[in-house]
Structure formats: C-alpha cells, structure tokens
Amino acid sequence: MKAFFIISFLLFAIGAGAQIKAIKITELEKRIKESRTPMIVNFWATYCVPCIEEIPYFQEMAKKYKSKGVSLLLVSLDLKAAYPAKIDAMAKRLKLTAPIVWLNETNADYFCPKVDSSWSGGLPASLFVNNIAGYRKFYEDEVSKRTLENEIQAMLEPKQN
Q1: pTM above 0.90, yes or no
Q2: Looking at the predicted structure, is the pLDDT value of residue 84 above 60?
Q3: What is the 3-state secondary structure (H, E, C) of the chain?
C-alpha cells in the first residue's frame, strides 16, 4: 500500500511539471529550423492581457488546420517565479491543449534576434514558419483572428519561384 502512494505521488509530481518544459533559445531555434511541417510559435506571458485574449483563437485555428499539418507551440516568456505553477494554472484556466514551453532565458537582447532580427521583445509576438515552402513571417503585436487565418493560408501555399 505504501508503494502505491509513493508511486502515485511520483507520477503526479512528474505529470505536473512535465506538461511545461523549460527550454533554452538554442533548443527553440533547433525546433524551428528542423520543423518539417507548418508551425506557429506564439510568444506570450501570463501577465500579458492581449496574449491571453489571442491564444484561444490561435488554438482554434491550429485545430482547424491540423489536417494540413499546422502545429502550434506556445512559448511562455514569464519570469522564473511563474514557472511552472502560474503558467500551468493559466494553461488550465484557458483549457490550452497546444504544447507549452517556458523559455528559460533572461537576456532579451540575446534571444529576441535569434527568433527574428526585428523583435524588440514586445508581447504578444508570433512566428509563422513553413520551412518546406520557404515561408517565414514574424509579428510583434496582437494578431487578429482574420490575420491569423490569412497567415496560416499563406504559410500553406507552395513557394513561388
């Protein structure tokens, strides 16, 4: 019986933190570069109201275009104190199903240009990438549902020579 409780506790503890992985910018760069499917990377934080407002339709559009291979990665830029509890609580409140990672970086002057040379660090921010089609577009602002769908459709179009 004691073993059951220990195993249950360990599974709960592992499950609670396993949902949101801490990553470095180099790992994120690698994920983006090696993606073989259309990918949306949305940068957000629990304290960013426009971020929280746009995430539900990012999730909705990713689900709508899942059959076309579109994936969504939510990258939290919250401070270390928010990881993982506050980020996880927000994810549960918003009923997020997309993968979430926490960017374990503190120097925006270092990590922002690795995502896009124009990024000043403002939130929300989103990167649309389709390496197969040669598509890459970055937004440092809230994205409307209409713009989001237009970007997804553009990302899915074959590269024009």
Answers
A1: no
A2: yes
A3: CHHHHHHHHHHHHHHHHHCEEEECHHHHHHHHHHCCCCEEEEEECCCCHHHHHHHHHHHHHHHHCHHHCCEEEEEECCCHHHCCHHHHHHHHHCCCCCCEEEECCCCHHHHHHHHCCCCCCCCCEEEEEECCCCEEEEECCCCCHHHHHHHHHHHHCCCCC
